[in-house]
Each structure stands twice: as C-alpha cells, then as structure tokens.
Amino acid sequence: MSDIHEDLARIVGKNWVSSQKEERYLYGRDPGLMPPHEPEYVVMPKTTEEVQEIVKLANREKVPVVPKGAGLSLTGLVIPQRGGILLDMKRMDKILEVNDKAGYVIVEGGTTHATLKSHLMKHYPHLRHSMPDSPPIATIVANAVIHGQGRLTQQHGFNSDMVSGLEVVLGTGELCRIGSCAVSQYWFSKGPPMPDLTGLFLGWFGTTGVITKLGMKLYPCKKIRDAMMFLTDRADLVPDIMRKLGRTEMMEDIVSSFAPLPLRLKGNFNILIIITGDSEEEVEFKRKMAWDTLWEYFESRDGGFLSVPPDMKPALLAMPSKDTTRFADTSKGGGFEYSGPITPIEKYPEFIAKLEELASKYKLFYASSARVIDGGHSMMFSFSYTFNRADPDSMVRVKTALDEAAEFALEQGGVIWKPNIDEQKMVMERMDPNTLKLMMKLKELLDPNGIMNPGNWEAK
Amino acid sequence: MLELKFDKSKCADCKAVSCLVKCQYMDFDKDTAKVEWQKVIDGEDCRVLHDCVTCYSCEEYCPFGNHPFYLIVERQEEKGILPAPRPVITMWINQCQPVGRFMVGKVEEKALSYCFLPIFNELVKGKLFDGIWPSMIFGQEFFCNAVYLHYARMSVIKDRLPKIVENIAKQGIKELVCLHDECYGTFTSIALAYGIEVPFKPIHYYEYLHDRLKELKAEIKPLNVKAAYQRNCSARLIPETDHFVDDIFGLIGVERVKREYDGENGLCCAELIRMSKGPKLADDVQKRNVDDMVKFGAEYCVFNCPACYDSLVERVMRAGIKPIRMIDLCKVAIGEEQSQKPALEGMPVLKAAMEGK
Amino acid sequence: MQQYASQIHRCFRCGYCKFPTDYSSFNCPSYRRFRFDSYSTGGRLWLIYAWLKGEVEWSEHLADILYACTTCKNCTEQCPMKFAGDIVDWIVGARSDMVEKGKIPPRVARFFEAVHGYGNPLKLLRSDRDAWADGTKRYEPGDEYLFYVGCLGSYDENAQKMSKSLAELLNKAGVSFGILGSEEECCGNEIYMLGEMGLFQVLAEKNTQQFKELGVKKIVTLSPHAYNVMRNNYSAAGANFQVYHYTQLLSDLIKKNKIKLSQNKAKVTYQDPCFLGRYNKIYDEPRQILQSIPGIELIEMERNRQDAFCCGGGSGNFVMDLLAGSEDSPGRVRVREAYETGADTLAVACPSCLTIFTDAVKTEDLDEKLTVKGISQIVMESLSSK
Q: Is the bond leading into A262 cis (omega within 30 degrees of zero)?
C-alpha cells in the first residue's frame, strides 16, 4: 500500500478507501461516451473535516482530487482525467435542517434528491423541491454544480438558482461559508444583499472546491398535481406555445417531447403540461388557462389536447421519471447520451431539424425533450441518441453526432449544458477573452496547485 | 375502392329525419333537418359536417339502416374537414398502424380478440374464460380501426380493415369473441356497409358472457344492486346487442336503473368531445350524465368500453358510484375478484379529496 | 443462463436498484453495507461485463463483490428496464462461470465442500440431522405432507425451535405428515444461487428421486429458500409435487379453526423473507397468522413487503456472512429498524433471517428489548389450552 492510501485510510477509516482495481475501474467511467480514466484511490468521507484533510493531503502530495456525486452527467465530468483521489461524496448523506418557515433545507454534500424527496413527503408534505428527471441517486450538490434542472425549473429557474447557501472546502483545504449563512445562522440567501460568491463554485464542476453542505429553497407542495398533453405537428408553433404557456405563470412544468417511437409520439411535438392546485377550483382554473391560452391552435386544428387516461398519468407525473432512464435501453443496448444546450426557445424548429438530420446521417435512434426554463427566457433542448454498449461502432456514431450537435448549438447562439472537456474548450474558444482571463484567475486563486478535478475548465 | 352502401331514395322518402332530429348535440327541427341532410347527401359543406360530435348515434336512429353516420364521415373526409385537431388524428393513425408486432395465445377455432387494448390482459381471468383462454389475439394487426370514424378517416378503415380481417382469418379462427364492443360493430356493421366479407363469425362478448353465466348458474350469487349503464358509441352500430345487458343483469341480480340517459338517449362519455370540441361541451355532457346516475340511485356504473371507463372513472367515483367493467361485474357475481382497480395516482383530484378526509 | 453474457451490457447503471420504492433509504444489502458503487447491482453488472471483456482480471476482491450479493431481488423490483426480471439470473450466471473456472472466494468453496460432503453447509453430521426431532414421525407413503425441514431448521439451535414448534402444531392440528430425518438432503437453493450448477443438479435429482420413491405429493417447508427452489427450480429434475411454505399451511389451519388461538399480548413486527416475498409474492399469509392471534399488535417496519430490507443472509451468507462485521451489516440495520417501530418481537418466517437477527440483536445490545421468533414459535405460544 502506498503512503497516500495509508494516509487516506487514517483519515476516513480503512473500510472507506480503496485502491483496488474494481473500484478504480468503476469510478473511472460514467454511463456516457467520454473515454475512461481511472483514479488511483476511491475515498468515501463522512465529514467535512475528513474532506478538508483529504484536500490538504492532496495539496501536499500534488495529487488530483475529483469530488463525485452519482456521476450521472453522462459527459464524463467526474472522470478523473489525471487520476488521483476520487471523492465519492455519497456517505455525506444527511439532511441537516428543514426550515419550514423560511422554506429551505440544508443537506450534506452527498445527499441524494430521492432522499430529500422521501424526507419531505414524510415529514413536510406541504413542501417540495425541484426534483430532476435523472435517476434517484443523483445528488443535490452535483445537480446544482452542473446547473441541473428539475420539475420546478419552469417556474423558478435552474436548480442552481434555488441554492440558498453553501459550505465549501476550498481547493486549499480551508473551509468557507457562502451566503447568508456566512453571517447568520439562517441559510435563506446565497448572496444578496452581499456579493453572490456561489458563482465561484456552481458551474465549475468541482474545479474550485468541494461543496460539503448546501442550502436549497423549498416550495409549496400543492395537494393536487395533474398532467395535460398538448400536441402539434408544427415545430414552428412550438416556441409560441411554450412561451405562451410559460407566461401564464400557472404551469409547474412545460416539456416538449419528440421521438419516432413509441408510435403514439411519432409525427407530433408532445407538450407535457403539469398543473397543480390546492383545490379542485385552482386546478380547474389552471386547466382552463391552458385551454384558453392555446385555443387559437385548437381552433385552427394545428394543435389539440389529448385526454390523458388515468393509467397513463402516474408515469407522466412521476418524480423521478423512470421513463427517462428507460430510454437508454430502447434498442436493448443500455446506453444513451444527450447534448443539452441551453438556448432561446425560438430556436426549437432549427434544433429539431438538426436532431433528425444527425439521426439520419449517423443512423441513430433519437428523441428530444425540451424544457422551458424560468418562464421562457430559455429552454434546455436535448439531442438524445441511444447506443449499444456492446457495439463500439454505435458508440462512435453517437459521439460524433453529439459533437456536431454541440457545435451547431453554439453556432445558433446556445450555450452547451454540462459540457464535456472537449466542449468546454469549444465554449472557452468562443468566450470573451477577458471573461476567460477572469475565470482562469479565479481558478488559480482558489486552486493554486491545480489539483481540483484537473482537465476541466482548463484553458490552453 | 370500397364504397358505402347508401340508398339516397330511402332518405328522399324519409319524413322523420331522425338521424338529425334525434341528435342530442345538434338542434334541428324536421324541416331544417331535411334541408341539412340533403346537403350532406349532395356533398355540400354544411353545419352537420362541422358540428357533429361523432357519437355514432344516428346509425341507431335511422330506421332504414342507411348509415347516415358513415356518410357524414365520408363527406367530412372528402371536404377535408377535421373533426378533431390534426395532430390528434395523426396520433391515432400512427399509434394503431400495423407494424408486424402482435401477440397470440394458443389460437383455436374459437378465439378471444383483445383488439389492441392491453386492459384485457388483466380482465380476462377466471372461470368465465375457462375453456377458451389462452385462445386469444392482441395487437395492431387485429385492431378493428373503427376509431377513425371519429376522425373523418374512413379511408384508413377502408385501407386497413380488409387486411385486418385477413390477419384474423389466417389464424384459423372461425368464431371470434370480440371483447371490444367496437370490433363487433366493425365486423358486422361497417363490414356490411362496405361489402367487406368477414370469413369468421363475430360473437359479441356480452353474448359469450351470458352463455357462460348460464353454464355457471350454480355459482352466481345475485348482487342485488342498482347500476347505471354507460352506453358507448359503437353500441349505436349494433343496437341489437343491447338486450344482452338486460339478460346478463337479470342473471346476476343487477337492476339497470331506468335513467334519462340510457337507451337511445344515452350520452357519449365525452372525452372525444373534449378533444374535438373543447372542454365546455364535454364537461356539460359528463356532468349531466353522472348527475343522472346519481339521481336515479345507481350504486354502480357499468361500462362496456374501456375508453368510456377511462373518461368517466374519476367523475363517477367522486359522485360516490362504483365504476366497474361488465366482465368484472360478472366475475364478482360468481365470487371472483375484480381485476385491479384504477390507481388513485391516476386520478389526482379524487386522490386529494380522499386524503383530505 | 449463459445468455447473460450477451445481455449484461444493457445495464445503464442508473442506480434505481439501490433504493426501495419510496427512496427512503438504501435497500440493496451489499450497497448499504459497503457503499462503494461496486457493491451495488449496477456496479456488479458492469464489473461482470468488464471481466467478460477482459478489462478487469479475476481477483478475490471481484469474487467477493459478486458473492456479497444476497440475491434478494430488490434490484429486480426497482430496475426500470425491461430486463429487470433477469438480473439475478445474470449474477447467478456469472457466478456459475466463476465456479466452472474454479475461481471463487474461499468461504464459498468451503460452503460447497460442506454441502457436498455432509449434505449441509454447516459441516455437521448427517446422522445428527434429526437430533432436534424428538420422536417426530418419519414420512411414510400415505402421509399427506412431507415436512421438509432444511439445513438450518435441522442443525441451528435457534432454527430448531421453529422446526419443533411447527411439528408440534401440525400434530395438534391433526395433519398427517412426516419428516425424512437423517435421510434429508440439502435443498440446494443456496447452491443454485451461488452458481454451483453441477452440485445443484445432483441435489435436485436426489431429492426429487427420494420424494418420488416415497410417493410424496405435498411438501411443506420450514424455509422459504427450500420453498423457492423446489417450486421454481426443480422442474428439470422431474419434480411432480406441490410445495407449500409453512405459513401458508398454518394460515389455512387457523382459518379452518384446526388451530385455536388464545390471548398473547405482544407488539410484533414482521420481516418478509426475500424468497417468500419478492420471489414468490407471499406477503399476506404470515401477516394473517399474526393478526389472527388475539392481543398481538402487528406494526409494520417502514420497508415492508416488496420493499423489505433483506437480512443479509441470502445466497449462503447466513453461513459465509460476507456482509458481516459492521454496524452497516444488513442484519444489524434491520434489527435497529425493527426496534424503532416500538415492537418487542421481530417475527420471522425464515430460519436464515432468524439466525442472522438473533446474532444482530446481541451485537446491537437489543437482546433484552427485542425478541426474534419464528412465526411457528409465536403460534405455538398462543395456542389455546381449550
């Protein structure tokens, strides 16, 4: 055993560190298509102090540290590009406080979305948080770090916009509190009325520090949730439809899906609208608002609501959505990846055309879902393609298509969401040079030894 | 090309114009109805082609069996009139197209048709189906296609139906017990109206259930309940099967409440009306229907068609009435379990109401 | 079973397999215990695939990871994919490959040797198999039921109490039955799950042959493991008999009033055994028995029925115990959960659960507060004297 292994074992206990091949193999890859690279050590800290000690050790030894949640970005963001220590944060899984009155929760750095959902349902059924469509093991911190989206993103923005405070172990090992919690016992604000320093950590993929605690805003959980489905066969109408729905300020979520299979989806843009209410009247009012808003398309017969039978509703309302995961095995290959640019909604028709063009060019099975963000200021548009893990050729074809999709998204004025290391370079190449310089200065300041998830957000 | 057997002269001689006068969704007196109907016959654009809610009822109202509804559907399609939004029609056409994937059990000369409705996988269980199951067929390849009557797509029916009939015959089936009412309507009424030869004998599942219940008479424990019956659209194509409802109810001790909206006056389940005409009319129809069930003291609402069930289940339950499918009702009468009841998760308003109690 | 090699790449490693339905905690026993992704079902499937592709060499650690799976089927319940029902077969398939190549952890090898040589994994003498039986009659042709006791019920001191009480109950209810005594052979459920297909086949055939010779038509088993394997995996060996788990039989006898129960005041929580619940969908009968005893209050643990958390004893781990040694060991986690319900008794329907939990309550220092008992024992204690 190396000295580092011994040191890590001393910090976290011998059961929670491994440098064996099996763990290194698994933690060296994710379910997406970026090439694997193994860490030397996999460690599961339990406390903030342990994380600090590990980061200090890494600084001493000049060994990379890669903090990881569930590793579900699919773009390889926690593949340890230069090896080193992989921090599996999922043992730090406590829910530390729910502040019912101020409406926020404080969780540890590895707490999963599912754990929080379950906890709120049991103890605070009147509260909820923005649950992403990713599998239940996705952690709250990692989701915020990649600016993930969830069921409340249409109303309240990216899940990272809902952060209300952080505790961070900096790249140097110092501990730091960000937001109102830096000066108060309350975690109600991530910055205002002070400078918002969460921007030094969210979106940085762990290159500036390790988030060990996170405050997250909670929202009312209304008693009734119902699903409506609006169809149109005209891509050019989708932006208006989504925008108009968003501007009602009445809809929990608005997501447009497009796929050639199952057959009932084929040929249409299937817009899922979730409405909520504390009473039947409230739900009926919102239902009527949806109808009234889209009546012109109904009258012109370009669009219409599809009645959703009771047995179809649970899947549409499910959080997390198992259907999203099932897509991976549509062609019995167990794999899918998507490029999910954030872009103005008006680009929907062009993106759909590109989605189909790439599918046909590379002979791929495809799907797309586009979620309205923050009432319609932007959307996340996914170019999703399936691949077969046992067929390397299909993996290459999907990767090539996704690279082209990313390039296209940037050309169209979009910004790539959770970009892989190559896409990060594409983004940085287009970035205002002074912005890039500022980013690099901040990074160097926070991680002087360049040990934090190296390879990511790295300018040449 | 298959052509509708329609006899103009029958309409010319008709004084009652019941097809339109009896319509519950369009208001015509005899004189205007006569003029309007002539326009339909002549292929002119007219109100009927736009306002028809496609409830199929005029097929039953016409005393001559002259297929007024099929003519409406033909005319709508000729004129490019869309009774429902285009994407909804596209959805239906795509969803049910035969793609060479289907399921068959151990098919024998007498077989059950599940049409393309997975619900029958749950419903078809127990003694009622001893002796026939697993002789069954399921899938788009056996889908009756009658649904396109709602969408002005007689062309799809004419295109697909002969092949569907062939698919069924190819299975070596001589007698087909249609578990979906609409299949029986298709293989009898539509096929006849278009001269499509059906080389097997369609049997309505009500007739099948009735015969089985007679065989299982010793096991029947009369239910002694009052039930409202929800007539579905395709029942209008085959009104001659309605007596089986009374026959079955008679065997199992169920009283069919004599309510306003049963028989010829039955109301559409209205979910198609919602999709084609909007929520206002649909809500009104559903409310009147369920209020009527309550008014006449129904404890159960018995459904024939799975789509009617989906449309009304939550509303019926909220009115304190138990929704049940005819097959389940018969199962309960012989002491068997009702198949899985609908999950509350699919009925959010009802769920919240129950949790609030 | 070899088809696993052509299918196993289909796991996306989404991680649903780690949870129960309501996501309230981790429900995969080995993931809950070790917490490295390698010990979750998804991690295991990816490692097997890596081994098949030659990206990971065989190692004892790899084998430990594979054998730490208790085949509890929580993953099957939770996996959203169409192949969910095949996952355990894939794991068993990979194990059988390891067995064929002679690459298994020493503890697994010892398990096989014991069953092979002694007919039980505890390496105890065949002649002692009916030491518990205390005059319980041998099965004779014409008896209605063969009471198949199984290895733990025959040898384990605690499990023997389950066997004794069941035999006594059956006698009192006037059921005609008998046991095989020292002629009884291991059922092979664990051998199957551990992937020793050759030995399993020998056991299945031997047992089936013996049952046939004796004219056995109905078998009642003490262990859900035996119930499972005889019901689902003996057909190739030409099995032609009905198998019942004893809770099914007891529930029926109580309903028919052949067992009369009197007051027994206790707060009881119940552990669904994996091989009764998730494998064979028997959830109600054990509960019906407990609820039919006057005075017993049945309190459910948060994770129950298809979401029940495995005791950690499946796939031979009631002997090998690859998950032992930590406060995160499944047995210890589960007895704490049972205690938190406020129950004074943890009722089990499986001798493996009994063994694991009996140890766990001691380790957790709960033995004064929580008693672990087989359902047959509880019924025995509740018998009406009338």
A: yes
